[in-house]
Amino acid sequence: MAWYIVRRLLQMIPVFLGATLLVYAMVFLVPGDPIQALAGDKPMTPAVEAQLRARYHLDEPFFVQYLLYLKGIVTLDFGTAFSGRPVRDELARAFPITIKLALMAVLIEGVFGVIFGLIAGLRKGRLFDSTMLVVSLIIIAVPIFVTGFLAQFLLGVKWGIAPVTVTGHASFGELLVPALVLGSLSFAYVLRLTRNSVAENMSADYVRTATAKGLGRPRVVTVHILRNSLIPVITFLGADLGALIGGAVVTEGIFNIPGVGGTLYQAITRGEPPTVVSFVTVLIVVFLIANLVVDLLYAALDPRIRYA
């Protein structure tokens, strides 16, 4: 297992380099001059412009800039935003909030999606199964910004059982409704994925064999059906964690959450490449780590993978 982890970490290095190079190229090779965008309509002397270009290494060739950026990543020096504040401070402020929000959303969609999907799969074709399919289809069809504004109005404004916006502390109680909104779409997918996987595994040969050997219904469902049905669900949840962190812009905007989404949106509108690239780089690392955890969970769920 230790050698497998080392091998997976080594495989992640070229993926990380390729992804960061692509992001760096897309951000820094787009048309426009970030220094002129920083100045706006105010005049800037050539001396000040040259100083800013040297400060942000914009006077260097592209690959030199990229190598300097990688050096900063290794030393955990993400540079300085155009506002003069270190990007590392922005990361330390925004990422814990968004990671907390994304983990709550994954926990909600994972637990409730698996539970409802399991029951629907075991009762395929019955009333509960049909109801869950209709509910999940409605959730998928409604855009997340509509769900967010509706939850904010009903729970926060009309009924007053939840805060309308999130403060800078971003406690678990304040993030509960945003997490429900953020994880609602993935909840529908997890429910459907679990339901289809459970329904398919119920007719498998190993399930019939376990039943013929006299194993009780709870043991057959939990040990044989559910355990094998969770493999595609774990794959989806692992990939969805990175997607939730990167795609929380809408939810964070609705509930005024000072996380990655809002900070990234402001950095893009202000034209701050160092902040954008640094935030996206950390998102890439989170996504790679999530996929590593998914691979390890495969071995825990399927002994064939562990023995191989």
From TrEMBL:
Transmembrane listed as a keyword: yes
Localisation: Cell membrane
InterPro entries: BPD_transp_1_N, MetI-like, MetI-like_sf
Top-level taxonomic group: Bacteria
Keywords: Cell membrane, Membrane, Transmembrane, Transmembrane helix, Transport
Family: Belongs to the binding-protein-dependent transport system permease family.
Protein name (Swiss-Prot/TrEMBL): ABC transporter permease
Organism of this sequence: Nocardia aurea
